[in-house]
Amino acid sequence: MTPPEMPPLPPDFGRIGLGCVTFGREIDEAAAFALMDHAYSRGVRGFDTAAAYGGGASERLVGRWLAARRPAGGSLIVATKLLPPYTPEALRAGVEASRQRLGVDTLDVLYLHRWDATVEADAVLVALDRLVNEGRVRHLGFSNVTAAPLERLLERQAALGLAPFRAVQNNHNLAVCDLDESLRTIARRLGLALVGYSPLAAGFLTGKHRHGAAPDTRFTIVPGHQDVYFHPTAFRRLDHLLAVAARTGHPAIHLALAWALHQPDIGTVLVGGRTPAHLDQAFDALAFNDAAVLAELAMLGGNSGS
């Protein structure tokens, strides 16, 4: 396997990426294929999955779609993620398993799925570098990370002459935004790609969970989402969003997506769902250009400081 040259730029996922967390968990193969077909036809250039999604089912469905559709080389970036603990052996085994499920020789982007102190071992950073130099991984990324530990890791990678993390993927919506100004500052300084996920806060920003978790939703399928969003600050931001929607006549979903897609420094917003219509909502919001409404939304917060 020929080692690739170190890419001079971070991965470009396009403005809207397809989040594949619902595949094999909330939607079946036919629905997943329909969503991927629609995304690709609309020019979406980044699909995002993870080994943990559906216990590997999401990766397998993306892999079967890649084998069936054979998208043109270079037209699509597929990213996946591995959970901790991070050890050289676990990373290599995880990469091999993801490559097999996706049916690819090289993982376009490998994210570490969340922060864990095991990543700070030099042997782990060296193992990640080796996976890049062997051509098994093209780009490294980190998901669900804060600025201070990320900066520490980047400094250590630079000191050792190792392949650095090139992308950061965090929660990014009006209720809770973990792509804060400190991370944006690091990204601007070092040229990292910033990717936001869950622009509708797993459906929280639709307003349907104001009186508790609605049935057959992400909040009941993965109850841990309730800990992220069911708190006074998030509900206060939801109430502000719904008030702006009522006053302006724009649906809350449209405004929430528009906020996420028009935030400075965020290169890509991942949009998931169950049907192509969910993706179309994001393209409609991308075209939203009412500066006054966007400015009012920006005042609502998130944690971005914008």
Name the helicity range.
40-55%
CATH superfamily: NADP-dependent oxidoreductase domain
Integer-rounded radius of gyration: 19 Å
CATH architecture identity: Alpha-Beta Barrel
Average predicted confidence as pLDDT: 92
Which strand-content bin applies to the residues?
A: 5-15%
Question: What is the overall number of helices?
Answer: 12
Can you identify the CATH class?
Alpha Beta
> Main sheet?
8 strands, parallel, barrel
The CATH topology assignment is TIM Barrel
Unreliable residue runs: 1-6
Strand order in the sheet with the most strands:
1-2-3-4-5-6-7-8
User: Based on helices, strands and strand pairing, what is the structural class?
Assistant: alpha/beta
Explained architecture:
With 306 residues, this protein is an alpha/beta fold. It has one domain: TIM Barrel (Alpha-Beta Barrel). 44% of the residues lie in helices and 14% in strands. The chain contains 12 helices and 8 strands. It has helices spanning 29-41, 57-69, 88-102, 122-133, 147-160, 181-190, 218-221, 224-229, 232-248, 252-261, 276-286, 291-300; strands spanning 16-19, 46-48, 77-82, 107-112, 137-143, 165-171, 193-197, 268-271. Strands 1-2-3-4-5-6-7-8 form an 8-stranded parallel barrel. Helix 1 (29-41) links the parallel strand 1 and strand 2. Helix 2 (57-69) crosses helix 3 and helix 9 runs antiparallel to helix 12 (291-300). Residues 1-6 have low confidence and may be disordered.
